[in-house]
Give the backbone structure.
Amino acid sequence: MIESAFETDRKFSFDIILKEAGEITDEEKEELMQLSIEMFPEYADLYRKNKYYSAFEPQKSWLVRHEGKIVGTGKFLWKDLSFDDVTLRMCGFGGLVLDMYQQKGIGTSILEAAIQETQRASGDFLYASTENGVADEMLLAQGFELLNVPVVYNQPGENEVLPLNKRIYVYEITPGTLDKLKAQETLNIGDGPV
């Protein structure tokens, strides 16, 4: 578990704790599920049915608290991708921050921590997908590049490959990785979506 405290230039303070999946308590899982429901109410029934807070392993989660309440989270996972006789370690990042806590530096702080965690995990690149214009700006400002290669994933539990219809961004850790990804006609990220 890694714990950090932040105070932004707007005199807003928050704590970020990085936890392994097994370290997250049942109470925290419930808070994370409620955060997801608040952000995406159209999926409330699905979240409640599956007690959803996470679907992939190995995985770590950042819990962002302000005055004791979880106001944001970031997911971090990793997997090895093989193609063209090359194996690359992909680290994936996803984040949620409650609307009223956005534009306070939380997302950027999680993203910076994800870049550091990718380096610790010997990742070749950090991957993020989004449909959010604010996230696009944040990713580009942190040095991510838009990947203009179709990305597909394997539907878990089914023999189906589906397109990931989101904008895909990559932060290169190992030099030359971005060129290898751009050279693909289609990039299959394995079980997903991520």
